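Ticket opened by: R.M.
Priority: normal
Category: complex prediction / small molecule

The reporter submitted a protein together with zinc ion and asked that the result be attached to this ticket for the collaborator who will pick it up next week. Submitted input follows.
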Amino acid sequence: MSKRLFFPLVILTIFSMLFSACAQTPGASNGKLIVVATTTLIGDVAAKVGGDLIELSVMMPAGADPHSFEPAPADLSKVADADLVLVNGIEFEGFLEKLIENAGDEAKVVTVSEGIETIAFVEGADEHADEEHADEEHADEEHADEEHADEEHVDEEHAHDHGEFDPHVWQDPNNVIVWVNQMADALSARDSANAATYRANADVYIAELQTLDTWIKEQVAQIPEANRRLVTEHGTLGYFAARYGFEVVGAAIPGFSTLAEPSAQELAELADDIRDLDVKAIFVGNTVNANVASQIAQDTGIQLVPIYTDSLSPADGPAASYLDFMKFNVEAIVGALK
Ligand SMILES: [Zn+2]
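Result attached by the on-call engineer:
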């Protein structure tokens, strides 16, 4: 082989080796793991666990409705380039299938809610008046044996329209502790050199979540028991209610998604329940159109109270972190019901 041909070949070989080295670690950037979180809430928690060891981007802007959000091509290419993609799961992200397709490697998509005991959809309004006592008796059983509860209580077709399981797990800080542990494990598995730091970050934040849980219990104690009844614009507060001793009377949009349309009959039944049970307020999240909820508030003469449900506020708002989000909501709920 002549020298003339040999040198370009060597250079070409070196370039192709360099190129394939890059291709093997698509996310690598200053040695940091590239992490994509779907929602603002997951993003905030991931930032606490990953600290400055990760390069984090959050797919949804503050205030976007995760139930109806559609990622742009740029979002999907970020997913392709990421080392780790953190998703809520429980059918919260409607685009999850598309996200996994674009991830290239399904193993890098981590469902942070995995391991959380989910709340199943139970037909609300009618049962409520007739079977209130029975529901209470069965509550523990249902939690203990979810499959059994599904068979007995969930009209499957109907439940599917409304979302079968409640995805809004973050409304109980104890579920966010599950997220934190999932994140610490996932980050450590991909960056074992920094595992001790991820664990330490996780433990610091878990202590803050436990403090938050205690604070919420103290705040809720100000609300007379008879007033601990929640109506929302869609079913967002199930885990909060289960943890802190509230009863979910119903939602303007029945079920756990914003995508369903309430029927006139469902709205009339909810208004009846609000009057019968002397419910004080309807809480409306920051990711929805408040029209139906404000109509209910008008018809029944109760307060319409804004809270944060499926997204943090923008950075300069009052709920820019998960901890502030929960404090804002608890103060709003206590203020309206006490
Ligand atoms: Zn929601």
